[in-house]
Amino acid sequence: MGFAVVSPSATDMIMEGVIAVKHGLTIEEISNSIHPHPTLTETILGAFEDAEGLALHI
Question: Which pTM was predicted?
């Protein structure tokens, strides 16, 4: 399992992936966690929701 972020703000966003990989979290577990609004990490939430077929903002 791995996690990559390609963005000028990657250093602000990568921590979510680090925690997910370290703790072996599933897509569902990450999607069910709280993502503050408005933040760039919401884009990560959107990606995981899309993987589950639940994305609202595509």
Answer: 0.71
